[in-house]
Amino acid sequence: MAESDVNRHGTSGLPSSSVAADTKAATSKPRVAFLLKSARRRRLASGDAIPSEFFYGYIQLRDAGWCVDLIEQDDLGVGLSESVVWAPFNWLSDVFLGLHLRALYQLAGKRSRRRLADFAFVIVAQNSLGFCLCLLHAIGVVKAKPVFIVMGGLDTAIRGLAGYTRRRLLSHAVAASLSKGETAGVADRHGIRLNYVPFGVDTKFWTPAPDAATADYVMSIGNDSHRDFTTLIDAWQPEFPVLKIVSRIVQGPVPSNVEVISGHYDLVEISDADIRELYRGARFVVIPLTETLQPSGQSACLQAMACGKAVVLSDIAGLWDRELMRDAHNCVLVPPGDTDALRRAVRSLLADEVRAGVIGRAARTTVEDDLNVEAMTDSLSALCLREQHRSDPI
User: Fold this and answer.
1) Which class does domain 217-369 fall in?
2) Distances 217 to 38, 214, 247, 279, 327 between C-alpha atoms, Å
């Protein structure tokens, strides 16, 4: 209830006990820690304009008056990189227990326990850390309950011997997926219930260009293992305009009308503002993917849509929301791995700039209405409040 609502009810003769109850409800938000990869705090402190989606609601909850803290892996001494000493133990523990032993050891240490001690929930968006926190919470070492945003690959991760452990551990977290496709698929295949949280991008940062001018190139971007740049390059014809690919994973020679730009989020090889300008200048954007249940390509696709661009996207099983992502309305969906279909989709948009513009404007509206960082924050905060209500004594 907003403060103005409390004041208005208080002057209308509502019993003071009711006002007190409403006030208590408004101020009883749980304390929440966000455990994220390193480099986030540095980006905040830089003073540069940055998109907020990869803070997963930390900025929005902080600004809304929640008691939140941003904790990076380095703050807890939590490293996931291999070493000669740890490598064999990590491999064995991962195969047989489904856990990263080094991360488990570090999260169970005094340094981590002290840092997390005062929080009711810890939001984590990294699978290795998430499963470790589930175990430590289950045995009472870490009091904060994990709000575990699984970052793709869960269908594979919960199979086999290690998968048995991981399936059991998920019951000790508020487990969430960023994809309706993955949420339904994991439930159907494994009987595991995930909460759906709509991933959303920062519509104040990712915006269309002030003018309608575009350059004569098409753009693609991404570094995850499900990017299918091989199919995209095979589909690219000599008569097509320049294709700019922002990625570190493109291998081998490329045609003369394909330009590869090295880019990585954590290494800041290319700035967010630079990526935004590339989106804005492109005629449209192509996100080619191999078949997967995880929501691969999600952030890049929504960023481009927020910039008012039509996106040609592989129609994977993990497509995050089939009700919102509508072929020929706010995107163009093509079968994954189908070179001919991808080539036809590209050729069609190149031949019809008006159609590409209409799809791009509808794409921007979809992100503004439903797939933005505020919607993601609202969903995560609702999960925390619901779980807190469940655990409160009656």
Assistant:
1) alpha beta
2) 33, 8, 16, 10, 22
Q: Where are the domains of the chain?
A: 31-200+373-391, 217-369
Q: Which CATH architecture has domain 31-200+373-391?
A: 3-Layer(aba) Sandwich (3.40)
CB-based contact 173:133 (threshold 8 Å): yes
pTM of the model: 0.88
| DSSP SS3 for 258 | strand
Q: Which amino acid, residue 115?
A: R
Residue 353, CA distances (Å) to 18, 80, 91, 299 in order: 59, 46, 51, 24
The answer to whether 31-200+373-391 and 217-369 have equal CATH topology is yes
> What tokens were used for 349?
């948009």
Least Cα distance to 22 among 2, 38, 36, 42 occurs for: 2
The 3 state secondary structure assigned to 54-87 is HHCCHHHHHHCCCCEEEEEHHHHCCCCCCCCCCH
User: Tens place of pLDDT for every residue, the chain, 394 residues?
Assistant: 333 333 333 333 333 333 333 334 445 899 999 999 888 898 888 888 899 999 999 999 999 999 999 999 999 988 666 566 777 877 788 778 888 888 999 999 999 999 999 999 999 999 999 999 999 999 999 999 999 999 877 888 888 878 889 999 999 999 999 999 999 999 998 899 999 999 999 999 999 999 877 789 999 999 999 999 999 999 999 999 999 999 999 988 999 999 999 865 454 568 999 999 999 999 999 999 999 999 999 999 999 999 999 999 999 999 999 999 999 999 999 999 999 999 999 999 999 999 999 999 999 999 999 999 999 999 999 999 999 988 765 5
